[in-house]
Amino acid sequence: MIIVMEAGAHKENVDRVIAEVESLGYRAHPLFGTDRTVIACLGDERGKERIQTLDSLPEVERVVPILRPFKLSSREVRPETTIVDVKGVKIGGKALVVMAGPCAVESREQILEVAHAVKEAGAHILRGGAFKPRTSPYSFQGLAEQGLKFLAEASQATGLPVVTELVDAHQLDMVQDYVDMIQIGARNSQNFFLLSSLGRAVKPVLLKRGMMSTIEEYLMAAEYVVTNGNGNVVLCERGIRTFETYTRNTLDLNAVAAMKKLSHLPVTVDPSHGTGRWDLVPPMCYASVAAGADGLLVEVHTHPDKAVSDGPQSLKPEKFQAMVKTLRAFAEAAGRTL
Ligand code: PEP
Ligand code: MN
């Protein structure tokens, strides 16, 4: 259930509602919007008539059920899009945010070179994996903490905030000491213990869609993070498994438009993993913006032919730069700035 307060409701009345909700055995989760405060009541749905009676409290406008199963992530509880701040870069506002970098941090020189190149081309956030959850145990697994140190150095050198993947809840504190945003990859997108552990993360989360997750399952994954205490979640469509084999995955742009409707969380798109082919990345970047994406995640490598992972889907810096240039017109047509 959600309790919608009247516009400009006084703090003491909001506090009173919260106290009454809690006395009924529910968890009250207030969401302070620009216009009004909404209090989400989380707990056993069977007792909802008792919450309904709170509509007689002062400055309560109405008490309504939350129809979607992803309660706190739903647009029902917050009509305006949440803006997630990644060390000053705001995702979810008018400005389109471009995150770019190599699939994996391979060496100090490599990440510094790519970081400067993507910054030059107009990227706002640097990406790079230090822990690589590879399909084969014999493939490169990442530089681990050394990779995080190189990322932090590249961030320092360029001023770009960094995002990297976390694969193990035990490494949360170590990873968030080095980076500005924590990525959860497609393979861990339904690892509910890992997702719950992010509730205590002090850094925002970039949550990829699981390759077999429905839109509802994906938003329920986001709900695990939000309900455990971290509302700074950015969604990322990265393609799903279908019968198609020409592309690595099928980039589901339906999901982008749908999630913008269903959820207040910002939505980004990763056309690199979504297509698996560098030549399809630019057109899918443009299409993502048309579908309403708040940002993009693009793999860039100075020598894709030598990349230890995902070379075939990585753009060379000059191609990335040209893509960002063309993207400006699409961003503008979509009412955004870049
Ligand atoms: C990545 O971003 O390099 C990655 C492994 O992505 P995904 O989890 O979407 O496969
Ligand atoms: Mn990759």
Summarize the structure.
The protein has 338 residues and is an alpha/beta fold. Helices cover 34% and strands 18% of the residues. The strands form 3 sheets. An 8-stranded parallel β-barrel has the order 7-8-9-10-11-12-13-14, surrounded by 5 helices. A 4-stranded antiparallel sheet has the order 2-3-1-4, with helices on one face. It has a two-stranded antiparallel sheet with strand order 5-6.
Structural account:
By secondary structure, the protein is of the alpha/beta class. The chain folds into two domains: 2-64, Phospho-2-dehydro-3-deoxyheptonate aldolase, domain 1 (Alpha-Beta Plaits); 84-333, TIM Barrel (Alpha-Beta Barrel). The chain contains eleven helices and 14 strands. It has helices at residues 11-23, 48-52, 108-121, 144-158, 172-178, 192-197, 215-227, 253-262, 271-275, 281-291, 317-333, and strands at 2-5, 27-32, 37-42, 60-64, 84-86, 89-91, 97-101, 125-127, 162-165, 181-184, 205-208, 233-237, 267-269, 295-299. An eight-stranded parallel β-barrel has the order 7-8-9-10-11-12-13-14, surrounded by five helices. It has a four-stranded antiparallel beta sheet with strand order 2-3-1-4, with helices on one face. Strands 5-6 form a two-stranded antiparallel ribbon. Residues 103, 129, 185-187, 208, 238, 273 line the site of phosphoenolpyruvate (PEP).
